[in-house]
Specification:
By secondary structure, the chain is an all-alpha fold. It is built from five helices and no strands. It is globular.
């Protein structure tokens, strides 16, 4: 797995850190194709999640990306798509943020 790949583990960590987790939802289960709304994450929580992803991974996600990505799988694919053109430059930015 490459250092710049955005994984489901990254997403779950960011969701929990930013918006917490609904008591009735098992985020450790098979959630990849479950709507964020069904998981208890509405638009404000997703905007916060997007901001955290942008800061941590050095990508830019427009509002359409966040609203169109209705499931964890779709968001992970969108983030990895945004990371791909960055290539090594994106990894260098991410690593520079860790050492700063």
């Amino acid at each position: 797995m490459s250092a710049h790949e955005f994984t489901v583990e990254d997403l779950l960590r960011i969701l929990r850190e930013g918006a917490g987790a609904d008591e009735g939802v098992d985020l450790d289960g098979d959630i990849l194709d479950t709507d964020f709304e069904s998981l208890g994450y509405e638009s404000l929580a997703m905007l916060e999640t997007g901001s955290r992803i942008e800061r941590e991974f050095g990508v830019t996600l427009d509002d359409d990306t966040l609203t169109d990505a209705r499931t964890p799988r779709a968001l992970i694919e969108a983030v990895n798509g945004a990371l791909a053109p960055s290539g090594v430059r994106g990894v260098a930015h991410h690593l520079s943020q860790e050492t700063a």
